[in-house]
Specification:
The protein is an alpha/beta fold and 655 residues long. It has 3 domains: 39-92, Urease, subunit C, domain 1; 114-236, Roll (Diaminopimelate Epimerase, Chain A, domain 1), CATH 3.10.310; 242-578, Metal-dependent hydrolases (TIM Barrel), CATH 3.20.20. It has 23 helices and 22 strands. Strands 2-6-20-21-22 form a 5-stranded mixed β-sheet, with helices on one face. A 5-stranded mixed β-sheet has the order 8-9-10-12-11, with helices on both faces. The longest helix has 18 residues, at 3-20. The relative contact order is 0.14.
Length: 655
Amino acid sequence: MNPTRRQAAIGGAAGALSALLGGSAAAQTSGSGASAMTADLILVNGRFTTLDQSNPNPQAVAIAGGRFLGAGTEQDMRALAGPATEIIDLGGRRAVPGLIDSHMHIIRGGLNFNMELRWDGVRSLSQAMEMLKKQVAVTPPPQWVRVVGGFTEHQFAEKRLPTLDEINAIAPDTPVFILHLYDRALLNGAALRAVGYDKDTPNPPGGEILRDNAGNPTGLLLAKPNASILYATLAKGPKLPPEYQLNSTRHFMREMNRLGVTTVIDAGGGFQNYPEDYAIIEKLHADGELTLRIAYNLFTQKPKQELADFESWSKQVKPGQGDDLYRHNGAGEMLVYSAADFEDFRVERPDMPSSMEGDLEPVVRLLAQNRWPWRLHATYNETITRALDVFEKVNRDVPLQGLHWFFDHCETITDRNIDRIAALGGGIAVQHRMSFQGEYFVERYGAKAAERTPPIARMLEAGVPVGAGTDATRVASYNPWVSLAWLVTGKTLGGLKLYPQRNLLDRESALRLWTQANTWFSTEEGKKGQIKAGQLADLVVLDRDYMSVPEDEIQDIESVLTLLGGKPVHGTGDYAGLAPPLPPAMPDWSPVRSFGGYQKRAALDDRKYAFAASCGCASACGVHGHAHTGVLAAAAPARDEGAFWGALGCSCWAF
């Protein structure tokens, strides 16, 4: 062993830890030399992608006190072991920094996760409907069965949503609510009765209740152009009691750990008031049960009273208040309701009202004066232009540099506005919503316009901080690997290629947007996001090699071992049992008990659903007299392909 190299590795680790921990690392080694520094955990035989350009591919990693102690040769890292050090062999697997989602609704989502049937990842409508049927059978009154976003009809082999008749046939008495993106919700008859919608119920502003010829609601709710009608209807459903919400949030966090996520920047949300709706996450934090790091933004709840919200909150909490597990992050993504341009590419772009600038300026001025970072939801360039006019006006009086403010989404932003953001020191957080909605965008605006939705490469060229996230759970899926696949391939879940090569990222650059780059958005640069001495020891061991698997497999990656501060929070296979056990999902009828969360794509290879991929008909066929997807969920012997489909000689199934 080269003693000079070993001392350099250990000395670098001590120096980095000393800088971050106020000299404590140096104190540990003083007097007795480097041998006093002992690792709690050493990872060997892995392929490490550190994202540390000075040390990109070490052989082994050592962890102590919740932080990375060193990364280097296996010999050097093993030299940091003591009698109590645990050594884990990664078996040649790829390890990357813990993933950071810069835009998600984890706090609100956690309160409801155990009540939701997730179609995330499901690749045939027939499978989705079978899941629905099974869940209806075990859901007691007055509870609902809810499918709340995370999927698109384009991911299904059948390329369609279920019909209301199909849903009502499966669930005549149990309320069913299915949310599809920002554009619509499907309610069966029982759900319409539960929410009280009838022929006398008026359409709310910005939404439409579709009706039959007699004026009765059909069960289809449309966002025209905003999703308020969808979310307000969902809010009418039963809620879980607090003890179940605690359990639900724990299960959602562990689901994120299973996919390799260790940090979430929570973007607030409608019906998520502060501090009341933060009691569950704060109790989990106080009880030491968080398995994610959470930085939370505060989202105004009262149209026309937004300034009062932020004036009140600015007296209650300060940005950065908290610790490395749970901390306040500023304002947004809603600052004022008149600036919210909900994207629904099935309808025309909404124009923001003339009051937008007058509403937005006092809020932004208050935030800037109090040094509160903010984030603002903005899909369309037209909205961004008007918001930047306000930001530039405020900047003349209260400089915004160093404030870490940013826009979310920015699907149609122009080069000019990218440069304006750069000049003001702002950032842009992008999400993979186009992976779910790209077909609708192309249908309305054309393939050429879709090539820059959003123009990520141009943002990076301009020097704008760019980070990636999901905007889960009500639109896109919370699975980070679906986003990473979109960044690398430019394809929708339906397989449509959206972007030319110039707007795609290589795999390491995409991973950096999901790790190191996202620390800017919570003002935590240098604290995490890399496998580097002194940083928080958040690390993920993958079930397949992200850097080399075929592009089509990126979206299927999962974690086999997830570490948060050096402690296992998820383990499977060779690492099963390392993470603390999780109590069963509550209540006992929870869809999480039966189905879990994100569904593995391998289900498509099951012959049980093979006919759906080749047929996918939505209309009645000449032999069966019904849609195939509907009959699969009904009481017919549809599972036996030879005796049922084949024997009857279906006229629209290609044998």
